[in-house]
């Protein structure tokens, strides 16, 4: 995917992706393919040690070859790659009609607990290209737990992704410019919360391509009177992304066209370190695929990618161009949350030295940091919210001068 692969492109990892790991043929979990809201399942990651069996002939006798204890060996419990539903991670799964945008939007929502006299806060999370709303499932649960319900989370599949469908024909799925996606988000929020004065305060969170979308919607939300506490950008830097774009097509050609099962798709994402959290992968990956209508039953590629990322190439540059300047000029508090030691481009380096935004780097995570370490990502976003939502008189928000 365009936004998911830019770091690999810069490192020139053009070799063929590793072979798929073995999986149990014919195995299919109950509810497979239904990414809607999940039960929980075992992670299948614990190692079990076989017991040592000792043959004892008598006390004090020297052991013979037949009486030596058997060598201890380890067996690994088979990894469970079966899909999980998202129930228990979001409170609601809804389909919202947006006639003005020609969409039936699938969204997942956990409303905030609203105290007397308050309106609550909702973290609006927008996924990246090729991903989906359920990439924020574990993050949403962490937000609810860590904030004790004070913060809600809203995540939706954008057009052409997940279970959001165009009502005006298939071409509507490919209107993926930054302006189109920002208009979709604006229509979603104004439909859900039609009265700005009664709406909860919002924290806009965008992962990779989603960062460009939330930054595009922010000015109009403020103009219409909605309260936006801040905007958080997850693991995208304009300079790095633009440098990687020439390699994107080649990288997309290296990924499989599809998989024989959803278990195989989940296994591929985990074993290739696209996702480093098996539980999150079991929730988010199934929604990225759709049944292959041309495959014979039980043979060949049964599941193909839902989002045709190779067809989104005309929009790639528009997603990332001017991203840094738009972030630095956003009229709200600003947070940049990066994975590992991702470098800043020049505008962000200057902005960081001038104190224009808060920068946090999470160790041990990949590009999908909200999936790889949802607890840490939620903690950082909530600390950012608390710092800027409850500022006293005369205290500036992050980035204000």
UniProtKB/TrEMBL annotation:
Span list, region Disordered: 17-74
Catalyzed chemical reaction(s): [phosphatase 2A protein]-C-terminal L-leucine methyl ester + H2O = [phosphatase 2A protein]-C-terminal L-leucine + methanol + H(+)
Similarity comment: family membership: Belongs to the AB hydrolase superfamily.
Coiled-coil portions: none
Job of this protein: Demethylates proteins that have been reversibly carboxymethylated.
Pfam families assigned: Abhydrolase_6 (PF12697)
Compositionally biased spans, kind Acidic residues: 43-59
UniProt source species: Calocera viscosa (strain TUFC12733)
Top-level division of the source organism's lineage: Eukaryota
Domain AB hydrolase-1: residue ranges: 123-379
UniProt entry keywords in alphabetical sequence: Hydrolase, Serine esterase
Residues at the catalytic site: 208, 235, 367
One GO MF term attached to the UniProt entry: protein methylesterase activity
EC class: hydrolase
EC number: 3.1.1.-
Record-given protein name: Protein phosphatase methylesterase 1
InterPro entries (alphabetical): AB_hydrolase_1 (IPR000073), AB_hydrolase_fold (IPR029058), PPase_methylesterase_euk (IPR016812)
Phylogenetic lineage: Eukaryota, Fungi, Dikarya, Basidiomycota, Agaricomycotina
């Amino acid at each position: 995917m365009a936004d998911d692969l830019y770091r690999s492109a810069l490192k020139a990892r053009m070799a063929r992706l590793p072979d798929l790991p073995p999986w149990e043929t014919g195995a299919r979990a109950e509810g497979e393919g239904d990414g809607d809201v999940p039960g929980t399942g075992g992670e299948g990651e614990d190692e079990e040690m076989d017991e040592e069996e000792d043959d004892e002939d008598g006390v004090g006798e020297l052991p013979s070859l037949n009486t030596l204890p058997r060598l201890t060996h380890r067996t690994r419990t088979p990894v469970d790659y079966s899909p999980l539903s998202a129930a228990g991670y979001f409170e609601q799964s809804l389909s919202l009609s947006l006639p003005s945008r020609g969409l039936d939007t699938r969204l997942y929502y956990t409303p905030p607990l609203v105290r007397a006299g308050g309106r609550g806060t909702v973290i609006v999370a927008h996924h990246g290209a090729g991903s989906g709303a359920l990439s924020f499932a574990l993050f949403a649960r962490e937000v609810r737990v860590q904030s004790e319900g004070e913060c809600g989370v809203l995540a939706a599949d954008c057009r052409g992704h997940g279970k959001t469908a165009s009502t005006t024909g298939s071409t509507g799925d490919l209107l993926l410019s930054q302006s189109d996606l920002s208009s979709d988000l604006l229509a979603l929020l104004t439909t859900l919360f039609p009265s700005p004065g009664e709406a909860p305060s919002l924290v806009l969170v965008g992962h990779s391509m989603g960062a460009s979308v939330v930054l595009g919607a922010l000015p109009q939300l403020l103009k219409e009177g909605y309260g936006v506490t801040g905007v958080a950008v997850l693991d995208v830097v304009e300079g790095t992304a633009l440098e990687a774009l020439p390699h994107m097509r080649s990288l997309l050609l290296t990924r499989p066209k599809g998989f024989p099962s959803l278990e195989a798709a989940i296994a591929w994402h985990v074993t290739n370190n696209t996702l480093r959290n098996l539980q999150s992968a079991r929730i988010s990956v199934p929604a990225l695929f759709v049944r292959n209508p041309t495959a014979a039953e039980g043979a060949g590629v049964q599941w193909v990618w839902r989002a045709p990322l190779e067809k989104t190439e005309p929009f790639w540059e528009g997603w990332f161009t001017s991203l840094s300047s738009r972030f630095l000029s956003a009229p709200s508090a600003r947070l940049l949350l990066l994975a590992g030691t991702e470098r800043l481009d020049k505008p962000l380096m200057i902005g960081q030295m001038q104190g224009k935004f808060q920068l946090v780097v999470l160790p041990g995570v990949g590009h999908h940091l909200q999936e790889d370490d949802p607890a840490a990502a939620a903690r950082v976003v909530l600390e950012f919210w608390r710092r800027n939502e409850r500022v006293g008189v005369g205290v500036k928000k992050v980035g204000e001068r």
